[in-house]
Design a protein that fits this description.
Mean pLDDT: 79
Strand content: 15-25%
Strand order of the largest sheet: 2-3-4-1-5-6-7
Shape: globular
Oligomer: single chain
Order of helices and strands: EHEEEHEHEHEHHEHEEEHEHEHEHHEEHE
Distance between the termini: 37 Å
Radius of gyration: 24 Å
Number of strands: 17
Low-confidence stretches: 25-39, 170-175, 200-214, 233-241
Number of helices: 13
Length: about 425
């Protein structure tokens, strides 16, 4: 599993600034999804060659100080439960507050590694004042300035030491079977889809206990098809606070994504695609996962001649620029097209794992290059001599050229479109690199 770090602390200590600072400073950070819930951010980051998830827990601002403390405690408890390590952020300008003490009490009881991060330490006077935080009793203490970024490297070095190469690689070690994660918002029909598939025949061979407590892995084996379904539906806690549910659902969806080969994103036909769905979609794409979009509850939509065609067109406009994605209109309740959805997911898995022969790749792609040359930059004629597929989990292609830095995004898009037209990569993100020849 991919290592997960949560940044916790009371509001206004600089958690989000610190998070954004990491994203701005490090070119290796590959994604920043903001607004998955109202005030939280999720990122996938890489530091000294080790990749991990970072979660910035939002500051909840309720009306009374009692609720205030309760909410923060809830956030911290969720973070302790879900993350592998915790960055506990405090503010040197205010010193230790009661809320800081309250968070520290919770964290001291946890067995997870805690990094105490004293923020806003940007001069020698504040460095002296920061020493009072040693009294909180945490062994790993770091002094940073989120605004300037000073000290952030040291804390990331310490986090990176905990990450094994295996978890960093996002490799699926134990099982060669395709893994499909069923993701989406609450109440779109994730559990129902799993139940409909499982309940159809009795040839399901086993239930494998999940890696996180509520993620169910089901081994599916019928009609000559075999794969693991990862259901993230059992995420609703018995609590009335929707904020907690959102937080749980997103962390679990991210974890299920890390493990999956293909993500089945379920939408509610009556709601269309929401901002949160788009965020989850783009995170799956950035993580290099295959994607199939399933529009559920299609039986409830009033149909006219071109309803599905028009719906799909609108959906693809929202999903742009990655529109080469299969979209299926299903009804889990009526069991309409749910087997077709599994067939398409298996096709996407095959697309993702295919290896194109170098000779065939060069035959086709060099003709495409000949048909439309890269634009001349600064008087340099850009020539592409050779193409090869790289041995990676995500279909990646290296184009060898005399001026790799001069090739712009429109031409890169042209090459990607040519790859998609000539080889089957539907539902799969493609990565293109230019190397010096």
């Amino acid at each position: 599993m991919v290592f997960t770090v949560a940044i916790v602390g009371r509001p206004n200590v600089g958690k989000s600034t610190f998070f954004n600072r990491l994203l701005e400073q490090r070119k290796a950070i590959v994604d920043d999804i903001s607004g998955v819930t109202r005030d939280r951010q999720y990122g996938v980051t890489e530091w000294i060659g080790k990749a991990f998830n970072v979660i910035d827990t939002g500051g909840f601002v309720p009306n009374t100080s009692d609720v205030f403390e309760t909410e923060i405690r809830k956030q911290v408890k969720i973070a302790i439960e879900e993350a592998n390590a915790i960055i506990f952020m405090v503010d040197v300008t205010t010193g230790i507050t009661d809320l800081d003490q309250s968070v520290a009490d919770l964290l001291r009881r946890s067995t997870k590694p805690v990094f105490l991060c004293v923020n806003k330490v940007d001069n020698s006077q504040r460095m002296l004042e920061a020493t009072e935080f040693y009294s909180l009793g945490f062994e790993k203490i770091f002094f940073v300035s989120s605004i300037s970024g000073s000290g952030s490297g040291e804390i990331l070095d310490a986090v990176a030491e905990l990450i094994t190469p295996e978890s960093s690689e996002d490799a699926l070690e134990n099982n060669d079977l395709p893994k499909f994660a069923i993701i989406g918002q609450p109440n779109v029909g994730k559990s129902s889809l799993l139940n409909a598939l499982v309940g159809q025949e009795r040839t399901i061979v086993s239930d494998i206990a999940g890696t996180t407590r509520d993620t169910i892995h089901t081994h599916y084996n019928m009609f000559q098809k075999e794969f693991i379904l990862i259901d993230t539906a059992g995420i609703r806690r018995k609590t009335k606070v929707s904020e907690d549910l959102e937080f749980y659902s997103v962390i679990r969806a991210i974890r299920a994504m890390d493990e999956a080969d293909v993500c089945l994103l379920i939408l509610d036909a009556s709601n269309g695609i929401t901002a949160q769905d788009l965020n989850i979609f783009s995170l799956a794409v950035k993580k290099g996962k295959g994607v199939v979009v399933l529009v559920n509850k299609w039986d409830l939509v009033e149909k006219e001649t071109n309803t599905a065609r028009d719906y799909e067109k609108r959906l693809k406009e929202k999903l742009a620029p990655f529109t080469d994605v299969p979209i299926l209109f299903i009804s889990v309740k009526e069991k309409t097209r749910i087997m077709k959805a599994m067939e398409v997911a298996l096709e996407v898995y095959e697309n993702k794992t295919q290896k194109v022969a170098t000779s065939k790749l060069n035959d086709i792609m060099l003709k495409a290059v000949e048909a439309y040359h890269a634009p001349v930059v600064r008087g340099n004629a850009v020539t592409i001599k050779y193409v090869t597929q790289l041995p990676t989990h995500v279909p990646s292609f290296a184009f060898f050229t005399n001026y790799p830095d001069d090739i712009r995004a429109p031409y890169k898009n042209y090459l990607e479109n040519q790859l998609r037209q000539n080889f089957k990569f539907t539902g799969v993100p493609i990565r293109i690199f230019f190397r010096k020849k």
